[in-house]
Amino acid sequence: MNTLPFTFIVLNLVFFFFQISLAVDSITRSETMTDGRTLVSKEGSFELGFFSPGSSTNRYLGIWYKNIPVRAVVWVANRRNPINDSSGILIINGRGNILLVNRSKTVVWSTNSSKQAQNPVLQLLDSGNLVLRDEKDGNSENYLWQSFDYPSDTLLPDMKVGWDSKSGLNRRLSSWKNSDDPSPGSLVWGLELHNYPEAALWRGSAILYRAGPSNGIGVSGSPDLKTNPVFDFKIVNNADESYFVYTLKNKTVISRLTLNESHDVLRRETWIEAEKMWKTYATSPKDYCDVYGLCGAYGNCIINESPVCQCLKGFKPKSQEKWELMDWSQGCVHSEPLSCQDKHKHGFVKFVGLKVPDTTHSWLNESMNLKECRAKCLNNCSCMAYTNSDIRGGGSGCAMWFGDLIDIREFPVAGQVLYIRMPASEIERKEDPKVKIAVIILASVLVVSAMIFVGNYILRSRTKLKEEMERSGIIGQNDEGRDEDMELPFFDLSTITRATDDFSIDNKLGEGGFGPVYKGLLADGQQIAVKRLSMCSGQGVNEFKNEVLLIAKLQHRNLVKLLGCCIQGVEKMLVYEYMPNKSLDFFIFDQTRSRLLDWPRRFQIIGGIARGLLYLHQDSRLRIIHRDLKASNVLLDSDMNPKISDFGMARTFGGDQTEGNTNKVVGTYGYMAPEYAFDGQFSTKSDVFSFGILLLEIVSGKKNRGLSNQDHKHKLNLVAYAWRLWKEGRPLEVMDACLGDSDSQLSEVLRSIHISLLCVQQRPEDRPSMSSVVLMLGSESSLPQPKEPGFFIENDSYEPHSCSSKQESSTTNEISITLLEAR
User: Fold this and answer.
1) How many other C-beta atoms lie within 10 A of the C-beta of residue 227?
2) Of these four, 349, 421, 725, 771, which has the most CB atoms within 10 Å of its CB?
3) What does each C-alpha distance from 659 to 105, 545, 680 come to in angstroms?
4) Three-state secondary-structure class, residue 675
């Protein structure tokens, strides 16, 4: 039986006849609270009631400080579902749950607790915690539900942020969208549950700031969090819980932690009664060096240096050119590479005064000592650093890091010791000064000799490559301006043959219009992918020429790197860096593998593709139009970072040229812009159209074309379906059912769908540029309404797939096409 209508009748009669006063700290099932009435904690510290934030007329149920003149709301119940009038009623139903209902008796918020009580009591404690308990438990903390488990944007004393492993509860702060809207914004602060947990601040899925793990005294990345006269704090990490909590030393002090959406900060504030204002005690992040990963791998941020990013001793910039341009994103590498085969020649260099690296790939053992920790790390070639997890006293515990060390900064006074793996040559040792001078002279001679040798090698390699391309007819002997493009390394056929085990079928990765692709392993251990031009390829020679002469110099983290080429007789091959996770379509269009790409990962991939296209369109030395952007041409590295590939069909523009015309239309149906497919007109906006299709496919997990319904009467079109849902106000129905449904995710998904429809508009001039797309993906600014898309096909048969549904069959052939159009 539904007890809600009966409860309403009884409660309305109670209010009509008795007008119960709620200036108390609790209510029972026989009582209720309407808009205009409040619930006050026993000692009058906090108040629960209905309010309208800022200039908004919406009504919310919230908790605020009772005795502070400027209302400071610390918790909001229905922050996602406001009530648009003063009809809100708070009740306790027959199952012992708290319900917030509006005039139409619709439940806009509830505790939804699975625990039941015979005599439930709702009580506001003087800590600011709203709790639901069974009256027979008295003042026991055996709560059926408590607001402290569901924070808004404020952390109060005795309130935990972190994980309850038993219940799976993750307590995190999330900012208000703005002062008029308390619904969850994109700024989130919480605890990352790694082997070595640490607090972090996110905007959406991107980390803005990492406080670092606990070190027994405070946290590694926040030296301001230390013993002080205002509050105590502790960080607990055990099998049952991982959380941060603070308590006030003086209970008369009013202090809080809040998230500020507009300034991207976590702020600790204290109320100063004499001045009637909040005074900021500390903020995080506090300076430029707190920006997450600013200096890249093995980069050390020193706030008083210029520039702030410096490579750690024993390391050098991965890209000296970019480093000098203050682009530190690629970070640093060992000055002398580490070899796993020579790990007995490794050691560790002691660095003092650091914030320890990101603990995503870390290991923790609190019972080991430092000597045991060093031995364990030394025996694992993947272990890059170690230190004590607790720095109190002489230090104890063991923390180890695997892979690149990210987000290091220097705190000369309050930092920690970190032992970083180095080759023997980099480990400090005492030597005779005369020996050092001799070594320096010898090294100088070797460097000069090496420069001469390398210069001659590059010249010979460039000459050989040009001669082979001329002999093969790829370029003519009179082609001008080619010498400067002949800087691509040249591989001998024997080297490629050995690397691929004589082009073994076991090493074959796939085949496209160019020809087969093989996995290979060079003598130095580097994995490669080799594209071998097929003898019968109609477009392979042009692709080969295009990539060798054009794409070889492109350098961007979201573009596949061309390592070299091989031309010998009839053999023509391109050598690329190997991408272990294949292509994007391998994941998103597969019912099982699509589950491996959650929304944060997909959004990261979307951003990477957008930045890669922006580089091609705007930041590379020539304006480059890809002309064949699709899911199968986006490869994924070991960390699932996207890299755009296959530039054989790309075209370049110089100066201010932005568009061109061709009588040879190349690309893939389903991704081509209308003006290109029909008229041969291409521009940067043609790539934007392809990106919009790809973005929609990533969101939905569906191909744009190639699927038929059961009666085979209609061709399905993803753009048409998404457009129809957009016009009907149901855009999120296009989302892949495998994705989560948290508010922050849904907001990003909705924005991504909106951006995709802007990109696929019929007219090129209506589509945004890739620079605008990158900005739109990274902000929450309002977007223009999209116009009808190109290739719009009205269709009633298209439905989104479910994770549990049978995988659809595909009849799409996504091999790139070349069409000759008469003029």
Assistant:
1) 9
2) 421
3) 59, 22, 11
4) helix
Q: With H, G, I as helix, E, B as strand and everything else as coil, classify residue 727.
A: helix
For residues 764-788, average pLDDT: 91
- Report the mean per-residue pLDDT for the chain: 82
Q: 3-class DSSP state for residue 277?
A: strand
pLDDT for position 230: 80
Arithmetic mean of pLDDT, 522-540: 78
Whether 462 and 454 have beta carbons less than 8 Å apart is answered as no
Mean pLDDT of 59-71: 95
Q: CA of 184: how far to CAs of 145, 163, 416, 743, 748, in Å?
A: 21, 19, 35, 7, 13
Pair 85, 103: CB distance under 8 Å? yes
Which range has the worst mean pLDDT, 77-91, 161-175, 215-229, 343-357? 215-229
Outline where DSSP puts E strands in 514-658.
Answer: 516-521, 527-532, 562-568, 571-577, 623-625, 634-636, 642-644, 651-653
> Which residue among the candidates 628, 646, 687, 736 is catalytic per the annotation?
628
Query: What is the average pLDDT across 520-531?
Result: 90
Q: Mind giving me the DSSP string for 512-536?
A: -SS-EEEEEE-TTS-EEEEEE--TT
Distance of CA 383 to the CA centre of its chain: 24
Strand order in the sheet with 120-124: 26-28, 120-124, 130-134, 145-146
Kindly list the structural domains of the chain, giving each domain's residue range(s) and its CATH number in brackets, ordered by start. 1-150 (2.90.10.10), 155-286 (no CATH), 290-426 (no CATH), 437-577 (3.30.200.20), 585-820 (1.10.510.10)
Q: What are phi and psi of 133, to 5 degrees?
A: -140, 170
The type of residue at 190 is G
Report the distance separating Cα 48 and Cα 305, nearest Å. Answer: 50
Is residue 54 a contact partner of residue 179, using CB atoms and an 8 Å limit?
yes
Distances in whole angstroms, Cα of residue 679 to Cα of each of 340, 470, 671, 676, 761 = 56, 34, 15, 5, 17
| Cα gap 678→60, rounded to integer Å | 54
Summarised one tens digit per residue, pLDDT across range 578-623 is 999 989 999 999 888 888 899 999 999 999 999 999 999 988 877 8
Q: For residue 511, give every residue at least 6 positions away whose Cβ sits within 8 Å of its Cβ, in sequence order, or none.
A: 517, 534
Q: Is the pLDDT of residue 4 over 50?
A: no
Percentage of residues of the chain with pLDDT beyond 90:
48
DSSP state for residue 195 in the 8-state scheme: S
Rounded to an integer, what distance in angstroms lies between the CA atom of residue 308 and that of residue 793? Answer: 54
Closest of 810, 808, 790, 791 to residue 799, by C-alpha: 808
Does the annotation count 180 as an active-site position? no
Least confident of 410-424, 451-465, 575-589, 590-604: 451-465
Find the mean pLDDT for residues 646-674. 69
Region for 605 from its dihedrals, namely left if φ exceeds 0, alpha if ψ lies in -120 to 50, beta otherwise: alpha
652 by Cβ neighbours in 10 Å (0-12 / 13-18 / 19+) ranks as middle
Pair of tokens at residue 618: 């705007």
By CB atoms closer than 10 A (0-12, 13-18, 19+), residue 591 is middle
Residue range 363-371: average pLDDT? 94
Tell how strand 408-409 and strand 299-301 pair up: parallel
Are 511 and 503 spatial neighbours (Cβ–Cβ below 8 Å)?
A: no
| Alpha-carbon dihedral sign for residues 668, 672, 678, 683 | negative
CB 118 within 8 A of CB 136: yes
Query: What pLDDT was estimated at residue 520?
Result: 93
Exposed / middle / buried, residue 478 (Cβ in 10 Å: 0-12, 13-18, 19+): exposed
Nearest Cα neighbor of 152 from 21, 258, 263 is 258
User: Can you spell out the DSSP letters for 14-40?
Assistant: HHHHH-----SSEEETT--EETT--EE
Three-state DSSP at 616 gives helix
